[in-house]
Amino acid sequence: MSEAAPALALDGLSVRYGAVDAVRALSLEVGRGEVVGLIGPNGAGKSSTLHAIMGAAPVVGGDIRLEGRSLLGMRSERVARHGVALVPEGRRIFGELTVEENLRLGLAARRSRPSGDPFAHAYELFPILDEFRRRHAGALSGGQQQQLAIARALVSEPDVLLLDEPSLGLAPKIVDVVFEALAKIRDSGLAVLLVEQRAQRTVAFADRSYVLANGELRLTLAPKDAGDTDRLVAAYLS
Amino acid sequence: MTLAFLNLSWPVFANGLEFGGIYALMAVGIGLVFGVLRLVNFAYGQLIMAGGFALAYGSQWNLPNWLSILFSFGVVLVLSVAMDRLVFRPLRTHSPAVMLVATFAVAFVLQNIAQLAFGTFGKSAGALASLDAPWDFGGVEIKKIAVIAVATAAVCLVLLQLLLTRTSLGLHMRAASMDFRTAQLLGVRANRVILGAVVISALFAAISAVFLSVEVIQVTSTFGLSDTIFVLAGVVLGGLNRPIPATLGGFSIGFASGILGGTLPANQSQYLPTFLFAAVIVVLLVRPNGLFTRAGGGVVERV
Fold first, then answer.
1. ipTM entry
2. Disulfide-capable partner of B106 in A7, A127, A128, B43 (CB 3.0 to 4.6 Å)?
3. Is the CB of A77 less than 8 angstroms away from the CB of B187?
4. What is the per-residue pLDDT across A112-170, written as a single tens digit (0 to 9) for each?
5. Min Cα–Cα distance to chain A from B100, Å
6. Nearest 5°: CA angle at A69, between A65 and A72?
7. So where are chain A's domains?
8. Per-residue pLDDT tens for B89-112?
9. What is the CATH number assigned to the segment(s) A32-51+75-237?
10. What is the interface size between A and B, counted as CB pairs within 8 Å?
11. Which A residues 62-91 touch B at CB under 8 Å?
């Protein structure tokens, strides 16, 4: 619980589904105001890592610490209430609820009572949501739904934000919007763990990126390595 | 005065509305729990039965009516929460089939306990029998219970709708019934949402028990059983997962049963279920997703 403890730390994390090792002895840290990228081929264990942090995957070894405190054994709802928010793969917004109701769900995990408009910050970041606040979320486009999913996570005022492939299936212009928002979120002091398929873009954007393959950490990359496709490809294929 | 075009008298029509109201409450009670637990609670009828016996004891002990109603509410509530804690919660991670069979087991256990404890003839719950008497509305006589049941059901359903749309518990319950896992990931408390559904469902069972005790004064181990089976058919008919279609389904089957009960000659009343279920089968053949669901909006099993 010292001041030096990183916002999020994985220490030798192992996840196993039945006989399948999804993540093997993964260690990484995410500090406040930092974006850490997690990239790698399909089935590398990226999503399993996020699910393990959220208490939604079977952890068989290692530890997960938030500000130095272990999250191990907590159910998803408690992890969320401790200040970890997940933007799940496929957005998982509630299509039959309105945009505002989706945001209100984000308040479920909020630790402090909101003063003033609890959604002001979210609307500022994604003005399109303000415009459509009374609309059913299912009527939004994919990009708008993604913005809603991120906004919903932010409404809980988390310390750590986990994103599972936020750019999946989005038009390039919308991907820009998402990454611009992530930059602002980083500047606001959150710790961000970003799982992505867009390897180059992630490496260039994140403060540091880890390449995962077969559940193991293969390579650590800095933004300047984004152009080094050979190393990336080698890590993916290893 | 009669509803000549339907060949119905007002009292029969009121009887239809009364059962429509009661069955709508039961349907919502079953639907709420299904929404959050994906569990069709076949033991719902035994909750009503327990409420009936509680009322009967209230009569036996000469409790004032309000106290026996309160006692009945308490019994149903405790039994309902106990059912969730002791049976449904431990089985929550199992397949829907396991949960379904478990509710059958609970239903039979409770019914047999009642049979052993109270015998075949059960007990009499006569306290509210006076409500079976009519009020005179300008020459048309309508049973008091019909008016009270319809009004109460309407108020309950409006209050529920307000709870679901205006409160955070309601929002969490709606979200949980759409996608439980995602709701939990957002910090929605699973146990709180389930408890909310179980408690409201129990309240509606208790209210139904009070009204049914006016119609069926002799409470036996099968009190509320056939009503529950009708309601389950009605809920399937309407669409399980949505409160409004479930309500309409329950209302329809209750209305049909009330009307048929009032129009079938007394010596043919035992055919009532036959007619009702024949109608249900026909409707489901024509609209397999339910009568009141939008096209393509049928119940989808989510993991």
1. 0.92
2. B43
3. yes
4. 887 889 999 999 999 999 999 999 999 999 999 999 999 999 999 999 999 999 999 89
5. 25
6. 60
7. 32-51+75-237
8. 999 888 888 988 999 999 999 999
9. 3.40.50.300
10. 59
11. 75-77, 80-81, 86, 88
